Amino acid sequence: TTAAPEAPLDVLRRVFGYADFRGEQASIIDHVVAGGDALVLMPTGGGKSLCYQIPALVRPGTGVVISPLIALMQDQVDALSAVGVRAAFLNSTQDAAERHRVESELLAGDIDLLYLAPERLKLQQTLALLDRVPVGVFAIDEAHCVSQWGHDFRPDYLALSVLHERWPAVPRIALTATATEATRKEIAQRLDLAGARQFVSSFDRPNIQYRIDPKNQPLAQLLSLIKSEHSGDAGIVYCLSRASVEKTADALVAEGIPALPYHAGLTAQVRSRNQSRFLREDGVVMVATIAFGMGIDKPDVRFVAHLDLPKSVEGYYQETGRAGRDGLPSTAWLAYGLQDVVQQRRMIDEGEGDRAHKQRMGQHLDAMLALCETVSCRRQQLLGYFGQQSEACGNCDTCLSPPESWDGTVPAQKLLSTVVRLQRERNQRFGAGQLIDILLGKETERVRSNRHDELKTFGIGTELGDQEWRGVVRQLLSQGLLAVSADGYGTLVIAPAAAEVLDGSRRVMLRREPERTAKVTKQRAG
Ligand code: ADP
Ligand code: ZN
Description:
seven-stranded parallel sheet; 17 strands; alpha/beta; binds adenosine-5'-diphosphate; disordered C terminus; binds zinc ion; 21 helices; six-stranded parallel sheet
């Protein structure tokens, strides 16, 4: 048939059953329908999918969506099929017969939207296949995966420059929920999108209350968060390791909270069963590594908790962004401790990659630490990181109970000079625990056997308690005055910048944790 194409708004209403476009959706869709290239930055939950789905339906030919989320393709296709859109995917999980069926449908012109894993685009057979069908639009989802600077680089994405070279007349729309100015530039450059119009939505998620607490007893802290504020709510708890995922899930279940584990060590079957229970049942808490969540569309996730420090602000923003997609008040809570800093520095040092890579990872970590240690509004800092100016929000922990900043120069000097003395006088390095025992003058076995009670700094730090000292060490690490040594034991060494503190020419401002109770939420705005 050659009927005039349907208007985007009519498609929105007829096919998807929504009354109106949100935010910038209408202008993005109009631009792409008219044949323009677009680079779309929209936070998670902002409604990116419709920005390419509707152009795919309105423009003649098939819309081809490049997505790294192979595990979700089936769900996406099912959801589209349910509203009558002819969708299919091609990825490595299919056998030859299934692939062949999809290819025949595509060639017959029976597919509106085809999801494609990026690695398939490198195959000559895929390129040849796409040559034989009219393509209406190319969508590049999770476009930040092309950025080596970003936190989620996928080498296969580099091959996507082929799209423009091979099909210069087909409009392309690249979408991402996370991109600093630098990443944005890199996406535009690597995907040949320099001429594309950029649509940058606000990254603010005002209904999410951001909170970062010192990590004392993470499990007890998590339980208190769930029991006092989120009883019966769906939530996601992120842990760094598979072991802590399992341990945490077990502990929650033992407390009567319906929690399920999710990590790459579980079979595909168990993972997909747990994922669908989380999506379909009410009030399930998913305890997961970051392997979980990309592309998950569950509107009523009421809290996202991090029991370990995320590796980057981008990661943190993306993970916390899975809370409150329905716009209702939600909590993003992170417990962060000294051990996190030590562990992550060590992981960077011992991990793969060249010097430049490690340096980038170090910068990502520093930005994350700065967010943790800030004495000003968390949201302001977070949005500032993405290049967006804003006022103090009134709905984060530092706005609701402002931390004091205090002059910690003297304690910093005591701690740093202990490290220096151990290094110089004894040629020794120790972790935070021993350093603090020395400052507090504790006569432990380890102190005695090392004759640390003979050090000049033994017992000179009793003005602070053990927890406060841990806070000092943590902050000196994040301020780059202390460093984790490369010995693999997490011992601490002096950083070059510490010289100015020791000679008195530089003051050290520290953050004092306010006494905080669960009452924060009582004042919750929004
Ligand atoms: P993103 O990919 O940006 O994270 P999605 O495309 O998954 O977001 O959309 C998030 C949710 O918002 C989905 O449940 C989607 O159906 C819904 N949504 C998107 N656009 C609209 C709209 N114009 N009206 C109502 N709901 C919408
Ligand atoms: Zn704030």
